[in-house]
Amino acid sequence: MIDPDEQEPEAAELVRPYVITNGRGLPEDDQFSLITLVTAAADPQLRPGHLSPEKQSVLDLCSGGYLSVAEIAGHMRLPMGVVKILLSDLAEGGHLITRAPVSRAQLVDKQILQEVLDGLQARFG
Known about the structure:
Layout: H1 17-20, E1 37-40, H2 53-62, E2 67-68, H3 69-76, H4 80-92, E3 96-99, H5 110-124
Antiparallel strand pairs: 1-2, 1-3
């Protein structure tokens, strides 16, 4: 029996992933990689009130700017597959804007950098 002065431990909030995704699997065209950038659409009229709590949480999280899919999964504390399904649903509904990650810059040729350095040293001492 629990002492009246002690509080009962809180039950963990646990919703099974298949409940969140309505039992669906990953979409065939996996458009979301770990580094795909996602933000909420700017038009508030595109946000109906009948979204699931998880989808609404994703939209609230993404309304501050671009986040990667991995960041969204980390903040939501949901498995990556579940997040990709939620993002796919929201993107199909026009609630999200996705952007490919910024590509890596190409390395500059060392010979060109050396020539610039030599020119600056000759000009300015």
